[in-house]
Write a structure and sequence with these properties.
Order of helices and strands: HHHHHEHHHHEEHEEEHHHE
CATH architecture: Orthogonal Bundle
Strand content: 5-15%
Number of strands: 7
Number of helices: 13
Structural class: mainly alpha
CATH topology: Peroxidase, domain 1
Strand order of the largest sheet: 4-5-6
């Protein structure tokens, strides 16, 4: 299928000077990610196939707060191409277009995700119609990663090594991605790919600030010196979060939500506890440091992980590649 017209329509809703940093791309990347991050390889369900975020239970998951704006933004495109593409396909393709619009890799898309009826969704997921977990790694029962599970009470004093003190969140991050079928390297790729974009909003998540303050709506993982003030996103994670002492922030509303802030060169970088897992855990950090020294490898590997993420749960032969002429830059899992 030639998706050039669909891509054009999606790019047409991407930019708005009144929204955050002038672009909906970070929101649409997060939206596509959250549609996919519910996959469970053991249960063989969840993920983007079925379009289950069309149902109220998944929309009400606290981890999906703020995504109603993305659904509303994409609805005219969903309706315009309803005879050609499922809602699930349009939602995920929007994430592909968003990556490209930020200066990231151009990726060929495969169509064929279904939109489950309520009866189909109930048969797969039970009365909720949506994929949820057992609460082991997210207190909300969500299959999506929790930002912070709190310090481990048996780790001892506050001065204990953060890998021990924050073992609960670190383990939850690792187990959540393992449940989808990703190893530590792929986990690092997907977290760094997603969190180089956008900012947190207190009224939505309770957190505040941009992960990458230089340009939150731009692909920021190229070599050092190619971005504002000479720091790419990988530089920040591989070097500055370790060499400069981040401060732990409380929240203006007095909640116990924890996040970290790094002040450097007059800028304030933010990270959630789940992000800091990539700095504190030795295995995760080794991959961060490798990719900080190998930027093209990161772009290639992160793109391949993104393609794989967006096709989780789809049966062999279910998806069909688009025929749109995309040029030469194509990093897909099928070519690795």
């Amino acid at each position: 299928m030639d998706l050039a017209e669909v891509r054009e329509a999606l790019c047409g809703v991407m930019f708005d000077r009144a929204h955050d940093d002038g672009s909906y791309a970070p929101l649409l990347i997060r939206f596509a990610w959250h549609c996919c991050g519910t996959y469970d390889r053991r249960a063989a369900n969840g993920g983007p196939d079925g379009g289950t975020m069309r149902f109220g239970t998944e929309q009400a998951d606290p981890e999906n707060a703020g995504l109603a704006k993305a659904r509303a933004l994409l609805q005219p495109v969903v309706e315009r191409f309803s005879g050609q593409l499922s809602t699930a396909d349009v939602w995920i393709l929007a994430g592909y277009c968003a990556l490209e619009c930020t200066g990231g890799p151009t990726l060929r898309f495969r169509t064929g995700r279904a939109d489950f009826s309520e009866a189909q969704a109930r048969a797969v997921h039970g009365p909720s119609c949506c994929p949820f977990g057992d609460g082991a790694h997210n207190p909300h029962g969500s299959r999506l990663p929790a930002a912070d599970l709190g310090p481990c009470p048996v780790a001892g004093a506050a001065a204990a090594h953060p890998a021990q003190r924050e073992a609960a969140t670190i383990d939850a991050v690792r187990q959540t991605f393992s449940r989808m079928g990703f190893d530590d390297r792929e986990t690092v790729c997907l977290i760094l790919l997603g969190h180089q974009f956008g900012r947190a909003h207190p009224e939505v998540s309770g957190y505040r600030g941009a992960w990458y303050v230089n340009s939150p709506a731009t692909w920021n993982s190229e070599g050092e010196g190619t971005t504002t003030r000479g720091m790419g996103f990988l530089d920040v994670f591989a070097k500055y979060w370790r060499e400069y002492n981040p401060i732990q922030l409380g929240q203006p509303d007095g909640t116990t939500r924890r996040q970290f802030q790094l002040e450097y060169m007059g800028l304030q970088w933010t990270a959630l506890v789940a992000d800091m897992a990539l700095v504190w855990d030795d295995a995760f950090r080794a991959h961060v440091e490798f990719y900080a020294a190998n930027r093209e490898a990161f772009k290639r590997d992160a793109a391949a992980c993104w393609v794989r993420l967006t096709e989780l749960g789809c049966a062999e032969g279910q998806l069909v590649s688009e025929t749109t002429d995309l040029g030469e830059e194509e990093y897909t899992d099928h070519q690795q």
